[in-house]
Design a protein that fits this description.
317 residues, alpha+beta, 12-stranded antiparallel sheet, two-stranded antiparallel ribbon, 7 helices, 18 strands, flat
Length: 317
């Protein structure tokens, strides 16, 4: 005798099947899951030393990387606003993309006159936008730049960066491509529109980039000046010498011919079925023989997230 499933059994089976397709494990970071570790490496001839120390206090250094990275969000918003302002009343913005290329870096160099030169930047930008007037006119705006540096001086007493000016060869390229039926009626219409837009956008975007980068100088200074507060003493000792102290002294007494390069950046790390988080990094290189790398560390946990309905919830496998 052939057995048949009741309608209610079929419904239950279908419902549970649909539940299982949505039920999943979620990876998350608990409240105490954030910490940071710092690795000091010393290389000078035959002498080599490396030691890693983990402490939540070091997150006060990596937090500066997150603060500095926020300039990218500010810059993205500013450039979008400038494009919107220039096309206002002429067209609408249909889509927009923006990228900052390169990691922000600070380079300090001791000069023969006793001053310390500071160079901030090492980034370029690329942006693209689609615009549309109506059925008879649409276009695309492409923006890109070469590398931007701000150069000035560093005061080791106050930790301040002063008199920052942009490199003279910094250039923003703007290309506006308008496709309009009006060019058939008014010869040169497209050329006239694109050239006016290109000139206006180039000028406004340059100002936005300068403004965004200059506004982050407090973040740079906090990274430089915060080392003596947040890098623990007694954790990086080798043959009686505390290399945390050596790092601090390098910022306070940078002699001619020596240099310090600081990079502050974030990298995205995916969590299972739960988006991603940004991991902060700060890398310091002192004259290619003393190095500090500080980065966020995370401890994750996993929880089962069932799908529930009229017939109950899916059980954890």
């Amino acid at each position: 005798m052939k057995k048949t499933l009741s309608l209610s059994a079929l419904a239950l089976s279908a419902t549970l099947f649909s539940f299982s397709s949505f039920a999943k494990y979620i990876e998350y970071i608990p409240a105490n899951g954030w910490s940071a570790e710092g690795k000091v490496t010393y290389k000078n001839g035959s002498t080599q030393f490396s030691k890693t120390h983990k402490s939540s206090t070091l997150r006060k250094i990596t937090s500066k990387a997150h603060q500095i990275e926020s300039y990218e969000t500010q810059l993205r918003s500013q450039i979008r606003s400038e494009i919107q302002k220039q096309i206002n009343g002429k067209a609408s913005l249909k889509s927009y993309s923006f990228n900052v290329n390169g990691d922000l870096e600070i380079r300090l160099r001791g000069l023969s006159n006793g001053n310390i030169e500071a160079r901030v930047g090492n980034i370029s930008v690329a942006s693209s936008a689609k615009i549309k007037k109506s059925w008879y006119a649409s276009g695309r705006i492409n923006i890109n730049s070469n590398k931007l540096y701000l150069t000035g001086t560093y005061n080791p007493i106050t930790g301040k960066l002063n008199n920052l000016t942009a490199n003279s060869n910094f250039k923003v390229n703007v290309d506006v491509d308008v496709d309009s039926a009006l060019d058939w009626l008014i010869p040169g219409f497209n050329w006239l529109v694109t050239n006016k837009l290109e000139d206006k956008i180039e000028s406004s975007v340059k100002s936005s980039i300068y403004s965004a980068l200059n506004s982050r100088t407090n973040g740079y200074e906090d990274v430089l000046f915060g080392l003596d507060r947040y890098l623990p003493h007694g954790k990086y000792v080798y043959r009686g010498k505390d290399y945390a102290v050596e790092l601090e002294n390098a910022f306070k007494d940078l002699v001619s011919g020596e240099s310090i390069t600081v990079k502050a950046y974030t990298r995205s790390k995916s969590l299972r079925n739960n988006g991603s988080v940004n991991i902060g990094h700060v890398d310091i290189n002192i004259s290619n023989h003393l190095f500090l790398k500080v980065n966020d560390t995370i401890t994750t946990r996993t929880r089962w997230e069932p799908e529930c309905g009229d017939f109950g919830c899916t059980a954890e496998p």
